[in-house]
Automatic annotation (TrEMBL):
<dbReference type="InterPro" id="IPR009068">
    <property type="entry name" value="uS15_NS1_RNA-bd_sf"/>
</dbReference>
<comment type="similarity">
    <text>Belongs to the class-I aminoacyl-tRNA synthetase family.</text>
</comment>
<dbReference type="InterPro" id="IPR002305">
    <property type="entry name" value="aa-tRNA-synth_Ic"/>
</dbReference>
<dbReference type="GO" id="GO:0005737">
    <property type="term" value="C:cytoplasm"/>
</dbReference>
<keyword id="KW-0547">Nucleotide-binding</keyword>
<dbReference type="GO" id="GO:0004830">
    <property type="term" value="F:tryptophan-tRNA ligase activity"/>
</dbReference>
<dbReference type="InterPro" id="IPR014729">
    <property type="entry name" value="Rossmann-like_a/b/a_fold"/>
</dbReference>
<keyword id="KW-0648">Protein biosynthesis</keyword>
<dbReference type="InterPro" id="IPR001412">
    <property type="entry name" value="aa-tRNA-synth_I_CS"/>
</dbReference>
<keyword id="KW-0030">Aminoacyl-tRNA synthetase</keyword>
<keyword id="KW-0067">ATP-binding</keyword>
<feature type="domain" description="WHEP-TRS">
    <location>
        <begin position="13"/>
        <end position="69"/>
    </location>
</feature>
<keyword id="KW-0597">Phosphoprotein</keyword>
<protein>
    <recommendedName>
        <fullName>Tryptophan--tRNA ligase, cytoplasmic</fullName>
        <ecNumber>6.1.1.2</ecNumber>
    </recommendedName>
</protein>
<dbReference type="InterPro" id="IPR000738">
    <property type="entry name" value="WHEP-TRS_dom"/>
</dbReference>
<dbReference type="GO" id="GO:0005524">
    <property type="term" value="F:ATP binding"/>
</dbReference>
<dbReference type="InterPro" id="IPR002306">
    <property type="entry name" value="Trp-tRNA-ligase"/>
</dbReference>
């Protein structure tokens, strides 16, 4: 047996290395328990120590049993000592700060990169288009490998977009539109194919829903997605329950990912426990698979090397950290990512909205009157208690939900800046700010409802039919 980690070990990813240390630890325990010869135990212990050392030099962290390398782990994860840490995973977003999650800290903890002015300027140069307000205002704030996408694009190499939605209910709210509004813009300015995954399987596994119901929600949600204006010739929307069984490429990728991720790893990344059903445990492979072009042979002519760009809210990052770790080991390019902040609940930026609480957000089905009442009644205000105090001290835009919503939806930069100054100085009252938001959202939602009405079952069927898109590969 080798006494020190050999060269092969040096080429392991941090996660694989973590696995090796864990395995070796188990081996040492087994040898000791089995009362193996002393020199055999000592050799195994030496190996364990050198593996731990290699782990430390590779990741900069001490090996801790049950705790995979930090950039692959959910932040906090119950191990952090700091009490005011934010908690973010695909199911929970929690912060004690009224301004919302500290996104700069999140970038450091997740090990992603900030979308800075240089990158935004570069996107502008590459596309010849004014950057979307979500970029200008830091709503898409973090990325992985976006510069690589731009390098390739500038060299006339195409890529494709992948995003998705978990159809947990019929009711979608304005926050759910954020990734789709942005993805539509990306599709337009880069002129690339888009695949949209509807994870009806995921919602069946996680929620108290029948298969039939979640499948039905997927089709209903598809209408809202289509109503965002995607090009039918360039977009493939699929329900997992439908597409997985029919595709010749998709399931192969699922199995490849499954072979390269252990139970220990998903426990570390997603916090699964021994009592979670095996459907949940293997689900991350299903969300990973669309990151590989070979999952869509009909679109990419069987090519497996077309790079993927995933716009999503930052809470989906754990899935794609896992995907990026696996990609090189199954001979596929790592997907690039663009991360958005969370859309705040009407009650404040401390938590993500819930589709089950009708007052926590503006729904795409709300009437103009409901929009008005909800904002006036429930939108958390950064204004002062009395008009006199407000005039004297001014309001706080950092915690004011109406102002936050306007940064998402008011297109005019100058107007937004004027509102900010007027509110901060006390010149503009909360009621007046709310009125601006109401007048911004009412026509926007009405227009969405109008477009959604135009979406026929026939169109849904077309978008959801596996087919070649308007691109040659
Ligand atoms: N899991 C996501 C949700 O619950 C849905 C999803 C699947 C997704 N694939 C994606 C989101 C890719 C963003 C990007 O909403």
């Amino acid at each position: 047996m080798a006494d020190s980690p050999n060269c092969d070990l040096k080429s392991l990813s941090p996660l694989q290395l973590f696995e090796r240390v864990t395995e070796q630890g188990e081996k040492v325990r087994a040898l000791k328990a089995g009362k193996a010869p002393k020199d055999e135990i000592e050799a195994a212990v030496r190996m364990l120590l050198s593996l731990k050392l290699l782990y430390k030099t590779t990741t900069g962290q001490d090996y801790q049993a049950g705790l995979p390398p930090r950039d692959l782990v959910l932040i906090n994860n119950g191990t952090s000592k700091e009490e005011d840490e934010d908690f973010v995973d695909p199911w929970t977003v929690q912060t004690s700060n009224a301004k919302g999650v500290d996104y700069d800290k999140l970038i450091v903890r997740f090990g992603s990169s900030k979308i800075d002015t240089d990158l935004i300027n570069r996107i502008e140069r590459a596309t010849g288009q004014k950057p979307h307000r979500f970029l200008r205002r830091g709503i898409f704030f973090s990325h992985r490998d976006m510069d690589q996408i731009l390098d390739a694009y500038e060299n006339k190499k195409s890529f494709y977009l992948y995003t998705g939605r978990g159809p947990s209910s019929q009711a979608m709210h304005v926050g759910h539109l954020i990734p789709f509004i942005f993805t539509k813009w990306l599709q337009e300015v880069f002129d690339v194919p888009l695949v949209v995954q509807l994870t009806d399987d995921e919602k069946y596994l996680w929620k108290d829903l029948t298969i039939e119901k979640s499948y039905e929600y997927a089709r209903e949600n598809a209408k809202d997605i289509i109503a965002c204006g995607f090009d039918i010739n360039k977009t493939f929307i699929f329900s997992d329950l439908d597409y997985l069984g029919t595709s010749t490429g998709f399931y192969k990728n699922i199995v490849k990912v499954q072979k390269h991720v252990t139970f220990n790893q998903v426990k570390g990344i997603f916090g699964f426990t021994d009592s979670d059903c095996i459907g949940k445990i293997s689900f991350p492979a299903i969300q990973a698979a669309p990151s590989f072009s070979s999952s869509f042979p009909q679109i990419f002519n069987g090519k497996d090397n077309i790079q993927c760009l995933i716009p999503c809210a930052i809470d989906q990052d754990p899935y794609f950290r896992m995907t990026r770790d696996v990609a090189p080991r199954i001979g596929q390019p790592k997907p690039a990512l663009l991360h958005s902040v969370f859309f705040p609940a009407l009650q404040g930026a401390q938590t993500k909205m819930s589709a089950s609480d009708p007052n926590s957000s503006i729904f795409l089905t709300d009437t103009p009157k409901q929009i008005k009442t909800k904002i006036n009644k429930h939108a958390f205000s950064g204004g002062r208690d009395t008009v006199e105090e407000h005039r004297k001290y001014g309001g706080n835009c950092d915690v004011d939900v109406s102002f936050m919503y306007l940064t998402f939806f008011l297109e005019d930069d100058d107007r937004l800046e004027q509102l900010k100054q007027a509110y901060t100085s006390g010149e503009l009252l909360t009621g007046e700010l709310k009125k601006v938001l109401i007048e911004t959202l009412q026509p926007l939602i009405a227009a969405h409802q109008e477009r959604r009405k135009q979406v026929t079952d026939e169109m849904v069927k077309q978008f959801m039919t596996p087919r070649k898109l308007a691109f040659e590969f």
